[in-house]
TrEMBL record:
<dbReference type="GO" id="GO:0005524">
    <property type="term" value="F:ATP binding"/>
</dbReference>
<feature type="transmembrane region" description="Helical">
    <location>
        <begin position="143"/>
        <end position="161"/>
    </location>
</feature>
<dbReference type="InterPro" id="IPR023214">
    <property type="entry name" value="HAD_sf"/>
</dbReference>
<keyword id="KW-0813">Transport</keyword>
<dbReference type="GO" id="GO:0005388">
    <property type="term" value="F:P-type calcium transporter activity"/>
</dbReference>
<keyword id="KW-0472">Membrane</keyword>
<keyword id="KW-0479">Metal-binding</keyword>
<dbReference type="GO" id="GO:0051480">
    <property type="term" value="P:regulation of cytosolic calcium ion concentration"/>
</dbReference>
<dbReference type="InterPro" id="IPR023299">
    <property type="entry name" value="ATPase_P-typ_cyto_dom_N"/>
</dbReference>
<dbReference type="InterPro" id="IPR023298">
    <property type="entry name" value="ATPase_P-typ_TM_dom_sf"/>
</dbReference>
<keyword id="KW-0109">Calcium transport</keyword>
<keyword id="KW-1278">Translocase</keyword>
<feature type="domain" description="Cation-transporting P-type ATPase N-terminal">
    <location>
        <begin position="46"/>
        <end position="122"/>
    </location>
</feature>
<dbReference type="InterPro" id="IPR036412">
    <property type="entry name" value="HAD-like_sf"/>
</dbReference>
<keyword id="KW-0547">Nucleotide-binding</keyword>
<protein>
    <recommendedName>
        <fullName>Cation-transporting P-type ATPase N-terminal domain-containing protein</fullName>
    </recommendedName>
</protein>
<keyword id="KW-0067">ATP-binding</keyword>
Length: 815
């Protein structure tokens, strides 16, 4: 293998002694590169000796975990296997930012003019008489231009430097707030994600973002969403027998598990990708069989067989909320177009989705080639600042002014010389002398002065100060702008491709409709209007039949706002209903702690319901909640008016489905049915879920939605009035997406705009060979308003297609 340069100390500090453990970083990385059956075979090979052998080699107790008091052992693991942090690229110095700011063409022209003006101020033209000489003030013009340039440079550089510091501080705070559940000292502890080490036993559950790479030790109905890495929307079932590998950056969608951490920081899956993308302090990933440096023209050409990184680039920063494809009012070449912009809810982060044409990612058939990167100590991708629209226009203006100024100066010089020659040689009949040279130099200086004066030194200063003022104003709205030209780029946005959850909606599932004791309420009624005898039963059914990790916490005075929903959002909506109706799920859970639950049938996509058996004084009871259409088929009765049991036959079930469930669903609500059943006092075969979860009694049906933010409809209306088209791109189903889009005002009832699912969108934009056709995309995107069931790749294809589009001369939206 070719020799590598020294990498960051975060990977393998010199103090680490790999011989202390039975496995090296390279062996663990090799293991985590495998998938499915291949990983199981490799894990059971003599090199690793199965999961238990892996634990033994890493000196981990499979029950008690690591010793949190043995700080020396933890530090040794960090030294050998690395820390669970990805070192960011070093921040540019203030001098470097000043140098970047000086690359503006207009500023360069002004600098040249300032130097020429100051230099010519020391030249004295030949005296034409005995008049008293005036003081030499010609240098003032040059110094004034120089001061204007320095002000522009320092304001731009200082703003970029300060905002970068603020942004990095915000990122650091977010990272410190992330917690992981681990087993240490035979106890479950919450530790910062950055404190995870190789060998930790980490608990993961529904909704968690995996903080590191690892292998399963124990699992229960575990399914993982790996779309952020592969673009595959199907959930991947994980188990110790079939596929035991868990990768950082993926989400747990079902079940729970315990894994042993094998890859952290730059040695994890996310670390490898971030290194390849050049988003870390070092772009050279750790030793990897699939990534080898190959010398090419004095540079390292990094090639990788990883899946399409263009998908990952849309997900590499957590919770990207808004993507804007900006356009300009006049047709420009590809390299001068403004690029895509991405914005989070509270932080504005302007990024270039397309990199420089000579240093971009090419994805062909799942293989990615990262173009050449410099082979020096500060190996980072090409960070040449891409010109914004205003910068391009100012550069063009400076060129035009320069051409006009040069033309005027040349014409002035010619006129002065011709006039002098006619007057001196033809009219006055004088002979050429050395004095004439002084006059000619004086004429040249006057021509140069015309050029200097024609350059508008105040223009870049005015633009920079205006943008700096805009940045300050945006700070008052909690928008952190990292670069001055971001405000100007935002002003050129013509299309907003917005996610749904958390951007247009509050990301707080809430019960908004209910069907209780035979009464359908389109708004949640106050507790006094609900049957009081029913409430204790409903409260217990919700409180014990939800994951005990799901809870609602009051926000701190510093945070303000609504209470925080922790855990499963749907369950939090039901727990919120308990609180609104005067119940206390905490008290019920204290009376029935988790260890006293007889049996829990966890939710999965096949059952679409969750059931829990508890033991009461009057015997055993099972509570069930889940998708209404599924739970209702298991019910034989329902609590009707006055809390009386009413039998449910097929006709009555059909009526409830049509009048209640479909009515709620048509409004974009997710319907949940809550039911129960007495099981008597005798212990039964609790594993026979078909027998247990049957002949239930329906307690209530509720409609849940993620409400639209109050400010969203007005904001979208303002965008539409300003000519900015808002599109919604979401992974949710098409009915919910259409409903939310209608509530937001993205589509109107009588509009004929397109509402497509990801599969249909892909069919329409690809040609016969299966490749994306820009021509076909141009036929789709102008009328597309909602893209549902979309993958990260679909989102990328849409945004990239809009940026590259030539649908109209000015790339306007054709409505």
């Amino acid at each position: 293998m070719p020799s590598r340069k020294k990498s960051s100390s975060a990977k393998t500090p010199a103090s680490g002694d790999p011989s202390l453990f039975g496995l090296t970083v390279g062996q663990l990385k090799t293991l985590m590169e495998s998938r499915g059956k291949e990983l199981i075979e490799k894990l059971n090979s003599p090199e690793y000796n199965g999961t238990q052998g892996l634990l033994d080699k890493l000196k981990v107790d499979g029950t008690k975990g690591l010793d949190s008091n043995n700080e020396q052992d933890l530090e040794q693991r960090r030294a050998v296997f690395g820390k669970n942090e990805i070192p960011p690229k070093p921040m540019k110095s203030f001098i470097s930012l000043c140098w970047d700011a000086l690359h503006d063409m207009l500023l360069q022209i002004l600098l040249v003019c300032a130097i020429i003006s100051i230099g010519l101020s020391f030249y004295k033209p030949p005296s034409t008489g005995h008049a008293e000489e005036e003081p030499n003030l010609e240098w003032v013009e040059g110094v004034a231009i120089l001061v204007a340039v320095l002000v522009v440079v320092f304001v731009t550089a200082f703003n970029d430097w300060r905002k970068e510091r603020q942004f990095r501080g915000l990122q650091s705070k977010i990272e410190k707030d992330q917690q992981a559940s681990v087993v240490r000292d035979n106890q479950i502890q919450q530790i910062p994600v950055s404190d995870l080490v190789v060998g930790d036993l980490c608990f993961v559950k529904y909704g968690d973002l995996l903080p590191a790479d690892g292998v399963l030790v124990q699992s229960s109905d575990l399914k993982i969403d790996e779309s952020s890495l592969t673009g595959e929307t199907d959930l991947i079932k994980k188990s110790e027998a079939d596929d035991a590998g868990l990768l950082s950056g993926t989400h747990v969608m079902e079940g729970s598990a315990r894994m042993v951490v094998l890859g952290v920081g730059l040695n994890s899956q996310v670390g490898n990708i971030m290194s390849l993308l050049g988003a870390t302090a070092s772009v050279h990933p750790a030793a990897d069989k699939k990534t080898k440096p190959v010398k090419s023209k004095g540079k390292d050409l990094v090639k990788t067989a990883k899946s399409d990184l263009s998908k990952q680039s849309l997900q590499i920063e957590d919770d990207v909320k808004l993507k804007i494809a900006s356009s300009i009012s006049e047709k420009q070449p590809n390299e001068d177009r403004p690029k895509s912009v991405k914005i989070s809810t509270d932080v504005v982060d302007i990024s270039l989705y397309e990199k420089n044409r000579d240093n971009k990612e090419h994805a062909v058939n799942g293989t990615v080639e990262l173009a050449e990167v410099p082979d020096d100590d500060d190996v980072v991708p090409n960070e040449s600042k891409h010109k914004s629209v205003l910068q391009s226009k100012l550069s063009n203006l400076a060129l035009y002014i320069g051409y006009i100024g040069m033309s005027a100066a040349t014409l002035t010089l010619i006129c002065l010389i011709v006039r002098y020659c006619i007057t001196t040689y033809l009219i006055n009949k004088q002979k050429p002398s050395a004095v004439d040279i002084g006059y000619f130099i004086s004429f040249l200086i006057q021509g140069i002065t015309v050029v200097v004066v024609s350059v508008p030194e105040g223009l870049p200063l005015a633009v920079t100060l205006a943008l700096a003022y805009a940045v300050r104003k945006m700070m008052t709205d909690n928008n952190l702008v990292r670069h001055l030209d971001a405000c100007e780029t935002m002003g050129n946005a013509s299309t907003i491709c917005s996610d749904k959850t958390g951007t247009l909606t509050t990301n707080r599932m809430t019960v908004v409709q209910s069907f209780v004791t035979g009464k359908l309420s389109e708004q949640i009624p106050p507790p006094e209007e609900v049957n009081q005898e029913l409430l204790p039963l409903l409260f217990e059914a919700i409180s014990v039949n939800t994951n005990y990790t799901s809870k609602i916490e009051a926000s701190t005075p510093e945070e303000g706002g609504l209470p925080k929903q922790i855990g499963n959002k749907t369950e939090c909506a039901l727990l919120d209903l308990v609180q609104k109706w005067g119940g206390s799920y905490d008290q019920i859970r204290q009376d029935t702690p988790e260890e006293k639950l007889v049996k829990v049938y966890t939710f999965n996509s096949a059952r679409k319901m969750m059931s829990t058996i508890i033991q009461r004084n009057d015997g055993f009871r099972v509570y069930t909640k889940g998708a209404s259409e599924m739970v209702l088929t298991k019910c034989k009765s329902i609590l009707a008016e006055n809390n009386q049991l009413k039998q449910l036959n097929d006709a009555e079930k059909n009526r409830l489905t049509h009048d209640v469930i479909e009515t709620m669903a048509s409004n974009g609500l997710r319907t949940i049915c809550v039911a129960y059943k007495h099981l008597g006092t005798e212990v039964q075969n609790w594993d026979d879920d078909d027998k247990i979860i049957n002949d239930l009694t329906c307690i209530a049906i509720v409609g849940i939605e993620d409400p639209v933010r109050k400010e969203v409809p007005g904001a979208i209306e303002q965008c539409q009035r300003a000519g900015v088209v808002v599109r919604m791109v979401t992974g949710d189903n098409i009915m919910t997406a259409r409903s939310i889009a209608t509530k937001c005002g993205i589509i109107k009832p009588n509009d004929d705009f397109l509402v497509l699912e990801g599969k249909e969108f892909n069919k329409r934009i690809r040609d016969a060979s299966g490749k994306i056709s820009q021509k076909k995309l141009d036929e789709v995107w102008p009328n597309l308003r909602v893209l549902a069931r979309s993958s990260p790749q679909d989102k990328y294809n849409l945004v990239n297609g809009i940026v590259e589009s030539h649908a109209t001369e000015h790339r306007e939206v054709v409505a």
